[in-house]
Amino acid sequence: MNKIKLHRNDILYPELSYKIIGICFEAQNKLERYLGEKQYGDFIENVCIKNSIFYEREKPIPPSFEGEKERRNFPDFIIERCIVLELKCKLFLTRQDYYQVQRYLNSYNKELGIIVNFRQKFITPRRVLNPNFDESKKIEKLEQEIFKNNLKRYFKNS
After folding, report:
1. Which helix (H) or strand (E) holds 48?
2. Closest CA to 110 of 144, 85, 76
3. Closest Cα to residue 37, out of 26, 27, 52?
4. Could you give the CA distance from residue 104 to residue 68 in angstroms, rounded to a whole number?
5. Distance CA 52, CA 54 (A)
6. What residues contact residue 57 under an 8 Å CB cut-off, 6+ apart?
7. How many structural domains compose the chain?
8. What residue numbers bound the domain in which 123 lies?
9. Predicted local distance difference test score (pLDDT) of residue 145
10. Which pLDDT belongs to residue 70?
11. How far apart are CA 22 and CA 16, in angstroms?
12. One-character DSSP codes across 4-42
């Protein structure tokens, strides 16, 4: 992919969003519009691997309350630990689709979600922002990951 520098200050993750949306356009151009979500997901996963884009696919959200069964809800992709990508294959998006992405954003404390509906003739990615995003939790989680990685390296080198 080309290195394009976007200069918009009012968009969250402009370069990464541009890459993700480009991958989605590529998926629809090659696969057309009548396949299932899993097939588009497989294509997007392969493109991410080829382009060294870190992702987590179908990572279940933690239970919302005690007694809730696990693996009830999971986003299609979390890209580079910052963008939730939700794939749809339906005639039109509904309010529930936006609520679903909002639930994922709140559960993982992410700022931005993107919904892409592949059933339409021309895809129109929709950005969903998280008004409840907590920057302090993001920093805390990042520090925990750095600590874990340093610990792994320490034990690996010991």
Report:
1. helix 37-50
2. 85
3. 27
4. 16
5. 6
6. 41, 45, 76, 77
7. 1
8. 14-133
9. 67
10. 75
11. 10
12. -----SSSSSHHHHHHHHHHHHHHHHHH-SSS-HHHHHH
Q: Is 59 exposed, middle or buried (0-12, 13-18, 19+ CB in 10 A)?
A: middle
Q: CATH number, domain at 44?
A: 3.90.320.10
Residue 146 tokens read as 């750095």
Give the residue from 110, 107, 35, 31 showing the smallest Cα distance to 64: 107
- Structural domain includes residue 154: no
- Reported as a single tens digit per residue, the pLDDT across 121-148 is 899 999 999 988 888 776 666 666 666 6
pLDDT, tens only, 92-128: 999 999 999 999 999 899 999 999 999 998 999 999 9
Mean pLDDT for the stretch of residues 32-48: 95
**Amino acid identity, residue 13?**
Y
pLDDT of residue 72: 76
